[in-house]
Amino acid sequence: MSTILSTLETAWLIFLVVMFFNVMIFVHELGHFLAGKWRGAYIDRFQIWFGKPIWQKKIGGVQWGIGWIPAGGFVSLPQLADMQGIEGEADIPKDLKPLKPLDKVIIAAAGPLASLALAYFFAILVFFVGKPVAEMSTTTIGYIPENSPAAQAGLQPGDIIRSVDGQEVHKWAGNMEGVRELVAMSEHEKITFTIERPQADGSTQLLTIESGYKLPETKWWQRTAMRQVGIMPAAPAIVGGVFPDSPAAQAGLVKGQRIVKVNGAAVYSPATVLEAADKGTVELTLQNPDGSEVTASVTPTLPANWQGLEGAAPIMGIQWGGLESVQKTEHPGVQEQINQSFRWMGETLAKVAAPGSSVGMEHLSGPVGIGNYLYQMLDSPEGWKLILWFAVVLNVNLAVLNILPLPIVDGGHVVLGTLEIIFRRPVGGKLLEWIQTGFIFLLLTFFIFVTFKDVGDLVGGNKEKADKLPAPVFSK
Question: Which superfamily is assigned to 238-322 in CATH?
Answer without folding.
Answer: PDZ domain (2.30.42.10)
